[in-house]
Each structure stands twice: as C-alpha cells, then as structure tokens.
Design brief:
The structure is a single chain. This protein has 7 helices and 7 strands. It is of the alpha+beta class and 151 residues long. It is globular and about 65 Å long.
Length: 151
C-alpha cells in the first residue's frame, strides 16, 4: 500500500505570515493537531502543531547554570530554552513553526512511513509532488487503513 492510497488530500494549510491565534482556532475548529505551512507556490516551508502553540500555556524555565572560573556551564539545554522562548513570544506562524519538515512522495510505501514517524517522533507527514503539497498522512490515516484492511 502506498501513501497516495490513504493520505488526506484536502489539507488545511496556513501561510508563514498568518497569526498564531488564527492557527489555534483552525486546529480547534477542524479537530486536527497540526497543519503544513506553505508559501504562495504551495511549497511546504514548515509545519505548526498543537505542541508548538502549547508553549504559550506553560511557564518558561530559564536553563540552570553554574559559573566556574569565569565560564558559564549550562546544566540544561539553552538551545531548547531559546526555541521555547521564540514560540512563547510568537505572534506569527513563521515564529512558531518547525522549519525542518519531513515529507514523503505519494508513491512512498506505508510500511516505511510508520518507522519514519516513530524514529522522528512525528504524528503527520506532508505529501509532496515536485515539491508542492498534495496531501498529508497522519497516524489516524494509517490506523483507518489498517482497520479497513483487517475489518
């Protein structure tokens, strides 16, 4: 079975210059957990998820550090803090989205999508043809395909 056999073709998308509150409303209204971010030519430039937006509901924790001989030693990851701070203060999608997006083609086997999702710890993968978005495959799409096949 291939991605094109189970993917969702009617994909909700957003643009990088849209406001994050609009994305939150889109996710809630459509009962979805993330959407691809596309440019004016429908190329995938990012993805924004509930997780990216949930940062706003948390308390930011400054990384714990020690000063030793005029050097700062971070005991926690300062890069994660910087990423969280960027998302916490984000007004626009481009400030909160994940830019490194895993994509697959329509002819990618489903049997290879599952391990890819597990390895990368992702819940959805945009499907592209010649670099342009044509669909999305989610864990739910795969589960539906299994139920239909076995049911």
């Amino acid at each position: 079975m291939l991605v094109k056999d189970v993917m969702t073709k009617d994909v909700q998308t957003v643009r990088p210059d849209e406001k994050v509150d609009k994305v939150a409303r889109l996710l809630v209204d459509n009962r979805i957990s993330g959407v691809p971010v596309v440019d004016e030519n429908h190329h995938v430039v990012g993805i924004i998820t509930e997780k990216d937006l949930m940062i706003k509901a948390t308390e930011l924790k400054v990384p714990f550090y020690l000063t030793l001989f005029d050097s700062i030693i971070f005991l926690e990851n300062p890069i994660r803090f910087n990423n969280d701070l960027k998302k916490y203060t984000a007004t626009y999608v481009k400030e909160a989205m994940t830019e490194k997006v895993v994509t697959v083609s329509e002819d990618f086997p489903i049997s290879e999508v599952v391990p890819l999702m597990q390895k990368k710890q992702i819940n959805r993968v945009p499907v592209v043809r010649h670099g342009k978005l044509v669909g999305i495959i989610t864990r739910n799409d795969i589960l539906k395909a299994i139920v239909e096949r076995d049911g």
